[in-house]
Each structure stands twice: as C-alpha cells, then as structure tokens.
Specification:
Elements (H helix, E strand, L loop, with lengths): L1 H28 L6 H8 L27 E5 L4 E5 L5 E6 L10 E4 L2 E7 L5 E11 L2 E8 L15 E3 L2 H10 L5 E5 L1
Parallel strand pairs: 1-9, 7-8
Antiparallel strand pairs: 1-2, 2-3, 4-9, 5-6, 6-7
Length: 185
C-alpha cells in the first residue's frame, strides 16, 4: 500500500508541474505584439534599468521606449509624469515631487486607491493611486490636501509622489485599478 501511495503522489506532482508549465507557456503566448519588453520589465524591474532616451528639442515629450497603449509613465530621474491615451497620445504631462523612496523601473498595475488618508509622513492626502512597494513602503501618487508639493523630509521613508491638486485630479480620473504605470529612469 505504501508503494502505491508514493506512485500516486509522484504522478500528481508530475501532472502539477506539467500544468504549471503549460499555463506559463499560454501566458507568455498572449502578450500583445510590441509589449514583450514591458512584460519582462514587470516580471523583473531590473531589466529596464537603463535610462530611456529623451527628445533634446522637446524635453517634456513622451520618452521613446516607454511602452505602448494607455498608461501612466513616470520618470524617476526627471520627476515627470505623462498620462498617455490608447493611441499613444499624451493627454497630460506634469512635474511631481517624489518621496524619499523611489520605485524600481518596470511596469506595474494600479493596485489600490484611496480618496483621502494620512500619508506615511503624517500629511493629510487625497487622490491616492498606489502601484507598488519598495523598501517596505507603499509607492503611489497623491495630493497633499493643503496643496503643498514641498520636498519630503529626508529622514522619513515616504513613497508618496506628490502632485498639484489639478494634476492629482487628472491622475485620479485616469489611473483606475489595473491601469499600467511604467516607471523609467
């Protein structure tokens, strides 16, 4: 009886591994054309660590290589956000004030939103759009209720990327749950 039980367990293990392999193949085969690099960046943010080239004549232009389709693009180095429509047209671009913890480069879905809460730095904030965690800190866009976009206290770990009230309202309306946020250097 013990011999037949181990044979069943081995058979079930082989079947489970084969199923996982097949599902992984199916998932990789359904990545839309042109998004293969985005999918890899999402799985391993370190892959997209190089700086994306910028248009020297128009520094606020959407950086080439920042993905395709509807998305939020956030440049860590330039402290700038682009809200991009499905047709790759920029709906809005604006400067932001980052927190003290930067997200790694990669593609992330918006995972949660809060209309009004208190930030990790104790500031009352609204229109919070979270998309990842780094260094045990939630990372997301937000607006200080006071409207301030002051530099954060360097002694406080904060993942809040602060926006003006107008820009925060635009982000809130654009970046719903599941919307992609592409983080570039």
């Amino acid at each position: 009886m013990a011999g037949s039980s181990s044979g069943i367990v081995a058979g079930l293990t082989v079947a489970a591994v084969a199923t996982v392999g097949f599902l992984a193949y199916q998932a990789s085969a359904t990545v839309p054309a042109g998004l293969e690099n985005t999918a890899r960046a999402s799985a391993s943010p370190a892959v997209a660590s190089s700086k994306v080239p910028r248009d020297k004549k128009n520094p606020v232009a959407l950086p080439a290589g920042s993905g395709r389709g509807e998305r939020v693009v956030y440049s860590v180095d330039d402290d700038r956000v682009w809200l991009v429509a499905e047709n790759d047209k920029v709906n809005r671009t604006f400067k932001v004030t980052p927190g003290t913890v930067d997200p790694p480069t990669g593609t992330y879905p918006v995972t949660s939103r809060s209309n009004a809460i208190t930030g990790t730095d104790g500031t009352p904030i609204q229109h919070v759009v979270r998309f990842t965690n780094a260094d045990n800190v939630a990372i997301g866009f937000s607006v200080a209720i006071s409207g301030a976009t002051d530099e954060p206290d360097p002694m406080t770990k904060s993942g809040g990327i602060r926006e003006s009230p107008e820009d925060g309202k635009a982000m809130w309306e654009f970046a719903t749950i599941g919307q992609n946020v592409v983080v570039i250097r």
